[in-house]
Write a structure and sequence with these properties.
elongated
Length: 46
Amino acid sequence: MEKFKLSVHHSRNPLHLYCHLVEAGTERRVGLLLSRFYEKTVFRII
């Protein structure tokens, strides 16, 4: 279970989110704002 938890935690990292957003065509500034919001809200719960 711990390995799964670490895997999910790593793959849902705000930096990963930012990279995926930029690769999908989102502007870097928007991606940065979204990943910061995600980090301050959702990521702390995970």
